[in-house]
Design brief:
It contains five helices and 17 strands. It folds into three domains: about 80 residues, no CATH class; about 90 residues, no CATH class; about 70 residues, no CATH class. It is an alpha+beta fold and about 260 residues long. The chain is about 25% helix and about 35% strand.
Length: about 260
């Protein structure tokens, strides 16, 4: 693990989160215990989260020094929101509208940690004319084994504007999409590096599976799976601006409508 990453996180916790913490340096990770917050932080973990000593029911967030180097402003704002330092809006204060591809991509590039995706259908919530939350959906997939007219869609991306939490925002976005396209279900994936017990369950999503993690080479606009260690040299040469990231897998969730 990199001492610069640890120092950077210590400074952020002290100046921005302003909470008590203890730092444990382990072989697998640097662990920041945050007793005043609903989560702990693991930096540069070298093993899946089950193997890093996570034994209680607190949420654990896994970060890497390379992520801090590239996306620290986004990461910092997201951690502040999770810590309760966010401007709160209610969905009833917002206006639902379809948004175009350009709006969706620019919003994700500014506020979402993963690679921006255009999707097929794009919805946004506006507050006083400002876009504050978006949801990106896939095209429908016919599931004939579940019925002749059964269609399933994927919620590909969802995020709020940094430093803002729209309470009830995702429900409003989903209801707007469902009113237009009448899906039988909506499925999505939640990154287990940020959440092991998704809050989406509170609005009706149910866990239906776990996708195992792996190594990826991450660039600003691409996520390249590393299925063979021998690929690393050629991928690094072709995309020198990227970095190697260990993913902790995803939880697959489904909302039946």
């Amino acid at each position: 693990m990199k001492d610069e990453g640890i120092s950077r996180m210590v400074e952020f916790i002290e100046s921005e989160l302003q909470c008590r913490f203890t730092l444990e340096r382990r072989e697998q990770a640097a662990v920041f215990r945050l007793p005043d917050l609903p989560f702990d932080l693991y930096l540069d973990a070298t093993a899946p989260w089950e193997a890093t000593g996570v034994t209680d029911r607190r949420n654990s967030i896994f970060l890497f020094s390379e992520q801090l180097d590239r996306d620290f402003p986004k990461i910092g704002r997201r951690l502040k929101v999770l810590a309760g330092h966010a401007q709160r809006l209610y969905a009833r204060q917002t206006v639902l509208a379809r948004i175009d591809k350009r709006q969706a991509m620019e919003f994700q590039q500014e506020h979402h940690l993963q690679v921006a995706l255009p999707g097929k259908y794009r919805y946004g919530l506006f507050h006083n004319g400002e876009l504050v939350s978006i949801a990106i959906f896939s095209a429908g997939r016919n599931m004939r084994d579940l019925g002749p007219d059964y269609r399933s869609f994927e919620l590909i991306r969802f995020c709020h504007k940094s430093d803002i939490l729209v309470i009830g925002g995702l429900s409003k976005l989903i209801h707007g999409f469902a009113a237009d396209f009448h899906p039988q279900d909506i499925m999505t994936y939640v990154d287990r590096a940020w959440s092991q017990d998704s809050s989406l369950k509170r609005i009706g999503f149910q866990e239906v599976g776990i996708l195992e993690g792996g190594l990826v080479w991450l660039t600003a606009d691409r996520q390249i799976p590393l299925t063979d260690p021998n690929q690393l040299a050629s991928i690094r040469l072709a995309h020198p601006e990227g970095y190697l990231l260990a993913q902790f897998g995803s939880t697959k969730l489904r909302l039946t409508l």
